Amino acid sequence: MILFKQKICYLFIFFLLTFLNSLGQDAHFSQFYANPLYLNPAFAGTVNCPRFSVNFRDQWPEIPRNYLLFSGSYDQHVNVLHGGIGAFVSADIIGGGIFQTYNAGVIYNFRVRASNQFNLQFALQANYLASIFNWEKLQFASELIAPYTPNDLPSEYYSSSKSQIDAGVGMVGYTPYLYFGLAVHHLLPIQANFFSKEQTGIILKERVGVKWTAHLGGKITISQKARNEDNYGDLSLYPNIIFMSQKTSHYLHEGFYFKVYPFTIGTWVRHNYKNFDAFIVSCGMEYKLFKIGYSYDFNISELERTGGAHEVSIQFIIPCRDDKIVNAPRKTTRKLSPITCPKF
């Protein structure tokens, strides 16, 4: 039994060093505005009509058992609710499935029309988190001598799954030429570890840290054939800055998108206060209500031979006529203004 406890302790230390940073912090996407609900829940309903978004990220593909990240979302504006609703799911697969995190949530936000050209949205988000640790995918050193199966491990020494409830809030403000926002995720204490003091002899209270996201951007119209309508050849520039902070990690993302409708290209740089992490290039194409984008992260940190990160996004907006609010005096109508932030 003493030998078994030592094995558990060694495994715990390996697991801690390898995965603790990932468990304590959220995975990230590089196409920020192509995954709007993941960035900020207050983006729900900002395009008015129903919107579907699907995203996939393959990080460090040259490393065996790398990181895979999937997400999907739906959102729209609902007049009778005076705001937007949204639903999303995501899956974070680490180490070829050794550790998996699944997230599902719903969003409601309330829209405030501050002026004819300035809108504010305030969002509430509720999440259900499920984490799975697959012991059968691990191989102990002793197995090379005397193989055994995970079923041989006493169940009281490990937990293979965990479910938790989470919450978040967000705010977005926008005009036809400027947009900004703030989001706070993980307001509830979310435990990241699968071990207890009785199992390892070590006190561990690792939690997923509260995540703060602040973003600011704008649209500079260079050439536009018709107001409030995209036409082939329209030129626009979107400068952006995004700040993310979670526990001890603080990252700045600075970049811009250049749009020649229907094509968009963009560049970003991601860094903390001391080092540069990645240089990101992206491209996308949109046709009417369909958009598809691709981005690649060039790793510029000291971590070498990772293969960077590939990311693909798809968005589809369902056409609708529900673009007016009838709540002004004498039943006059006021048209909602969708947000003008980039789509990739």
> What's the gyration radius in Å?
23 Å
Order of helices and strands: HHEEEEEEEEHEEEEEEEEEEE
User: End-to-end span in angstroms?
Assistant: 55 Å
Biggest β-sheet description: 14 strands, antiparallel, barrel
In order across it, which strands form the biggest sheet?
Answer: 1-2-3-4-5-6-7-10-12-13-14-15-16-17
Shape: globular
Q: Uncertain runs with pLDDT below 50, 5 residues or more?
A: 1-22, 199-204, 323-334
- Beta-strand fraction estimate: over 45%
Mean pLDDT: 81
In which range does the helix fraction lie?
under 10%
Helices, by number, come to 3
Number of E-state strands: 19
Structural class: mainly beta
Report on the structure:
This protein is mainly β and 344 residues long. The protein has three helices and 19 strands. It has a domain of 239 residues. The strands form three sheets. The protein has a 14-stranded antiparallel beta barrel. Strands 8-9 form a two-stranded antiparallel sheet. A hairpin with a 3-residue loop joins strand 6 and strand 7. It is globular. The chain starts with a helix and ends in a 9-residue tail after the last strand.
